[in-house]
Amino acid sequence: MATDQLIHDLYAEIVKIPLIDPHSHIDPHRPTARTLDDILGYHYYTELAHSAGMDKALLADAPPRERVRSLLAHMDRFDNTVQYGWFLEIARTFLGFTGERLSAADADALWDAAERVFARPDWESEVMRRSNLEKVFLTNDFDDPLTKFDTSRYVPCLRTDDLVFRLDDPQVRQRLARATGEEGRDQVSLQRAVRRLFEHFTAHGAKACAISLPPDFVPSASGPGVFWMLAEHCREFNLPFDLMIGVNRCVYRNGVTQGQDLFDQRTSLIQYAELFNAFPEVTFCVSVLTSAQNQELASYSWIFPNVVTSGHWWYSNIPAYIEQDARARLQAVPKTKQLGYYSDMYKLEFGLPKYNMYRRVLAKVLADDFVRAGAMTEGGAVELARLLLRDNARRIFRV
Amino acid sequence: MATDQLIHDLYAEIVKIPLIDPHSHIDPHRPTARTLDDILGYHYYTELAHSAGMDKALLADAPPRERVRSLLAHMDRFDNTVQYGWFLEIARTFLGFTGERLSAADADALWDAAERVFARPDWESEVMRRSNLEKVFLTNDFDDPLTKFDTSRYVPCLRTDDLVFRLDDPQVRQRLARATGEEGRDQVSLQRAVRRLFEHFTAHGAKACAISLPPDFVPSASGPGVFWMLAEHCREFNLPFDLMIGVNRCVYRNGVTQGQDLFDQRTSLIQYAELFNAFPEVTFCVSVLTSAQNQELASYSWIFPNVVTSGHWWYSNIPAYIEQDARARLQAVPKTKQLGYYSDMYKLEFGLPKYNMYRRVLAKVLADDFVRAGAMTEGGAVELARLLLRDNARRIFRV
Amino acid sequence: MATDQLIHDLYAEIVKIPLIDPHSHIDPHRPTARTLDDILGYHYYTELAHSAGMDKALLADAPPRERVRSLLAHMDRFDNTVQYGWFLEIARTFLGFTGERLSAADADALWDAAERVFARPDWESEVMRRSNLEKVFLTNDFDDPLTKFDTSRYVPCLRTDDLVFRLDDPQVRQRLARATGEEGRDQVSLQRAVRRLFEHFTAHGAKACAISLPPDFVPSASGPGVFWMLAEHCREFNLPFDLMIGVNRCVYRNGVTQGQDLFDQRTSLIQYAELFNAFPEVTFCVSVLTSAQNQELASYSWIFPNVVTSGHWWYSNIPAYIEQDARARLQAVPKTKQLGYYSDMYKLEFGLPKYNMYRRVLAKVLADDFVRAGAMTEGGAVELARLLLRDNARRIFRV
After folding, report:
1. Pairwise CA distance, residues B145 & B28, whole Å
2. pLDDT of residue B223
3. Most buried in the list A103, A170, B398, C310, measured by CB within 10 Å?
């Protein structure tokens, strides 16, 4: 940073923008970590440690404090990764860590610091404030009661993977019946069930519907598809539909929890052309998994009024791909149609390092491609960042 | 620019190279804009404005002056894009605009300036001179009479999409019959028709045959394909064949005119292996739509003597992709086999900003990858640029 | 280099790391060039010259000294390429060339210098020393006797393309029968043959099994596949399995020798999911041909403990793709699971310029993404480079 004053200055302004985080997995009843294990239990650490040779038994069966020590002991195998960088930033910013590198020798001090810090009565608000997070979208199961949390801070979002891909599962049927009074065994019952879910969610402040989709998924109006029905209800209930396109579940069958999913690069947004044409009133906030498909996303969003670029997802959420993908979007997609970033986090503490990673890349792209190229003033670049990090989300999701 | 002296110096030399523009949609009888509506009617502006929320009615039915005002009013939604940058450069260079950003408030002044400037008797020559354009290739319908224009300045090129993809259309049949005296209903008649078209075009100075192709197109020697017949005539008549690979037409069905086409990234040049093998005497000037397929293009051009890289097309025609794609080509493809850029323009005024965009990227790549890396002198880098912008086109198209 | 002190300093340290080169085509009985024709006969030069218009007859039938002169005469058509850069570096470093550019006028002087230099009795050791090469892996035919060379310097590797793809060829059958006493006409005989090959190779110091695979290959446990059998023997004999994924053979049918192969970008590592799951004990060192598939590779290696990233192969072995691909791997894949580079060379003289190309890119990425970003000290960055260039290969291949 220090080597480039313009990037430094832009970054300093960008971090002041209060964030609307349009996609996370936060549990609003337990939004922050309680122990260091809640931090290092994040699948990025368990899967990287396992991938680098750590035995699954050490990960699964150990008591939390020992699991953390083992993870720290394995970190020297993946301390090159950005995910390690996120944790280092958490340790430094929130836990007072002052060393250069983390190792098993830091386990006790970090554990104790975490216990102390995370137990503060105002910890949740402090994390929000220090991370400059204003609103955080959730990912709620369809049968979530959505009660007992502040929906102006934690914005509900109807996650629909179970409805589209697991409705054959008796447990899912039962959950649907309990939530809606409908078993959804025929089109009429299914229609009624979905309608009740949308009524329930919008009554409780939901601002989006969301789903993750495998690479070979092709939405279609023909056949008894739940997916198409969801799009119809998004239209009726005025909800944007988050499409997270491209993930194959359980590719590595013996992987750690949440560390089993991968993808097939051979997928195309052309599979969604019929959908985008059929629902001009629905805003589709699209995430893709690969940088190659990002070129499709930038192009489809440049052409379709109802297609919006959304964040930098999972395997594309590293600076090498964020930089290339964000550059293309900023050069080709109307600035009002870009949701710059979302955290995808499970615990609030990750908002800060993840957004900082994005904001550093964004400052660099704005400096190189816009301010230095003479296309924008510094002030103009910061206003553009404000759209990406805040104002577009407010307008698109009506929050 | 100013921040990097070497890039600045290279750019200053590169802009002095007189351009051969090997692909445009210029109407030689009306090559320049007559009103500002001819500029802002370019599909890049109508599609971006529509994508950013502008009603199609405002675009289709409004009187030209009002349409321009509406477009300018919507520009603050896409003033981050390079296409906005092209227009800003036109306004500054040709229309005397001196402000920072364009808005509806500039509509009258720009309209009047355009009316005044575009009406100058020497405007066509002035644009050519100030843009440093020497020759501009056209894209002519097969039944274009090719008369009453200077074919040494505007080089005819036989566009063959209609013949390959729309020969079932009675109107196309009629046009073919009128142009050639043949209806093309059997192989013999079709052969005669195609031969007459090639005779007509080459007699009128045509220097290339061109076509755009969908992602799933696979040329084949078997079956009664017009495409294969065209390649045979390119061989016989000594014409390079421009292949623009990868576009799906009318994906966004309700899009504005020319703002409906997109693509499927899942396409490969392996589909053209049989063609490239069958016609070693024909030079294929290949454009691709995606940066991922650019790696295929660079590799196929590195191996096949008759495959030449051509320009940066459409959704790849933004600096983020031009830079990566040009770098790969410059590092891997013989320098004599690269057509650096073409304008794809409908009005001459766009030559300047589009080529400037390319020349800025080219200066940067030459500075970073060649001059600073010690692989070339500044003079050598400028000579390389001269091949890309001028000399390769002259040799390959024999102009 | 000189323009950036940090990159310069990192590079200076990185070149001191003794190299383990995990993949080459060196003939251990004739590891160095004997004439300049051995250098310029490398397919990169013959295919680029041919692609740029050089007649195959000049390449195939000419006496060596004339062929070299002709190649040099054509070099001004591809002196922009990195491959030209490798040769220029060889000429300067080993042959005393002091000029700016190479041409036919240099043919005699270079030929004579090469004759003199390559004939030195200690030339092989001198090249190894000046290139800082410690061990070089070979690519041995399955019936290679593996005798009369120093297997601690030249590490045998069982190349299995013939077994998997050409077992129907009577010549291959015969070679198999001679090498193993088995014709491999049924599963039992084939099992025995493969076992004997593994016994022979491991007894002679082989440290890997390797194969190159077409884009549509899908390994499967069902059916009488030799490939699956090889993986089983890798498990039993404790050998890593190098998978070089994505090449189509003989795409350009009239190309020069080894200058005929290309690829289809439409391939995915999902095709290997069953394999990776079935053999957790086998380390798969995976090379891919495209930068788009590199994102898959980085992701699969991040998740699967037994998938390791390996080098920058063929059409991806140019700085534009090395930089992007290496950045992604360094940000996302545990550092212990990356084989940074291999030479793929046929003559030892190419180790120096090829590794230097990689080391320059690596120094730049380490400077920009790690040291300047504050994520690593300079010393830490050099230690990371040591893993990529040496220590990971030693651990993974047990050398």
Report:
1. 12
2. 73
3. C310
Q: Is the pLDDT of residue C347 over 50?
A: yes
Could you give the domains of chain A?
Answer: 35-118 (1.10.2020.10), 134-397 (3.20.20.140)
* Nearest-angstrom CA–CA distance, C351 and C340: 14
% of chain C exceeding 90 in pLDDT = 95
Put simply, the answer to whether C315 touches B330 (Cβ < 8 Å) is no
Nearest to C336 among A52, A264, A265 (CB): A52
- Are C296 and C269 within 8 A, CB to CB? yes
The pLDDT assigned to A2 comes to: 47
Question: Which chain C residues are Cβ-neighbours of B303 within 8 angstroms?
Answer: 47, 51, 251-252, 255, 259-262
Measure in Å the smallest separation between the Cα of A255 and chain C Cα atoms: 8
How far apart (Å, rounded) are the C-alpha atoms in residues C310 and C393? 10
- Which chain C residues are within 8 Å of A315, Cβ to Cβ? 295, 298-299, 302, 332
Distances (CA, A) of A121 to A34, A94, A115: 12, 15, 12
The strand ranges marked E within A259-344 are 262-263, 284-288, 307-310, 338-339
Report yes or no: C228 at the B interface, CB cutoff 8 Å: no
> Chain A residues with CB inside 8 Å of B248's CB?
270
pLDDT for the residue numbered B53: 97
B110: enclosing H helix or E strand: helix B107-118
Q: Do A273 and B252 touch (CB under 8 A)?
A: yes
pLDDT tier for residue C62 given thresholds of 50, 70 and 90? confident
Closest CA to B287 of B344, B244, B340: B244
Q: Residue B377: its chain C contacts at CB < 8 A?
A: 100
Q: How sure is the predictor about C373, in pLDDT bands with cuts at 50, 70 and 90?
A: very high
What's the rounded mean pLDDT across residues C328-356? Answer: 98
Phi and psi at B243, nearest 5°, equal -110, 120
Look up tokens 């623009």; give the residue: B244
- CA-to-CA distance for C119 and B275, rounded, in angstroms? 46
pLDDT of residue A57: 86
**Residue ranges in chain A whose pLDDT is less than 50:** 1-2
Where are the strands (E) in A156-251, listed by range?
Answer: 157-159, 208-213, 241-245, 247-248
Low-confidence ranges of chain B (pLDDT < 50): 1-2
Q: Rounded to a whole number, what is the distance in Å from the CA of B387 to chain C's nearest CA?
A: 11
- Angstrom CA distances, C336 to A52, B183, C307, stand at 7, 68, 11
CB atoms within 10 A of CB C1: 14
Q: Mark yes or no for CB contact C277/A254 under 8 Å.
A: yes
Closest to C19 measured CA to CA, from C313, C309, C385, C346: C385
pLDDT digits (tens, 9 = 90+) for C66-95: 999 999 999 999 999 999 999 999 999 999
Q: How many other C-beta atoms are found inside a 10 Å radius of the C-beta of residue B225?
A: 13
Q: Is the pLDDT of residue C385 over 50?
A: yes
Using CB atoms, which residue from A303, A336, A377 is nearest to B47? A303
